[in-house]
Amino acid sequence: MIVAYTSGGRTGNELYMFLYLLAAALEHHWNIRMWSFSSCHEFEFFGPGKGVCSYHPRRNKILYDFDVFLRKYHLFRLFGFFSRLFRVHLIYNQNLRNAELTERLRTISPMSLVLMNCWPFLDFDLLRKHADEVRKAVRPKKEYWERAAQIIEEQRRHGVPVVGVHIRRTDYARWRGGEYFFEISVYERCMRKISELLHGEVSFVICSDEDMTKHHFDVPCRSLYISRNPFLVDFSLLAHCDYTIGPPSTFRLTASFLGATPTFRIVSADCVPMSMDEFVMPMYTTSRPNA
What we know:
alpha/beta, five-stranded parallel β-sheet, 10 helices
């Protein structure tokens, strides 16, 4: 049994971690539980994902505080000695990453209890291998997913590609010193370039954490939809689009992954796609967890 916990994060981070864990569990037939997915009640789980996700904030905090204590007083090695006697293993994410972590888990007896602080746990190869199964195992609740599908279907009446634009600004004004806090004109410039690449035969769906109106976007296109829906409808909208763009964010990444939607990262104020080939499948083509 593997019990995963973390220090926190929002829905995108929680889902990001869970999807990689699920792929690894499918590969190695692990029994996993994730205690830190605070938004799990907003998702539906099917097949291999059913029953593996729960939210236990008190248990999660106890485990996190315990490994902080061990790290603070350099007691990991001592704990490791006693833990082997009782088949309990504590794995902290700064010790091992990705394939190394997968290899470490392979050496642990299936009868053991593994407590794993695993943000970020990334194994691109396994997620690519099990992508279809992982996508089938989890998605937002039916009310969000179907509302988004209905909105996108209305945009598809024009018979052109639908591009989801994820605009994230509120918390990004401070995160990393505002490195990815872009003016609306940056998104507009990127949309204009996409419109140029597609000869104006495109529809845009805007999902933003701020109120937007159409006057913010002077872009040639067949239609422009600005979402004012709950954030999990926005998440589902991005999943249903043909392409997505946005700054580095696990919210956009996980949505694009669940929808098998090629995506483009806006990483600087002058960043625009020079061809549609620059849109790539997310989450197993990058080495950065916040990509």
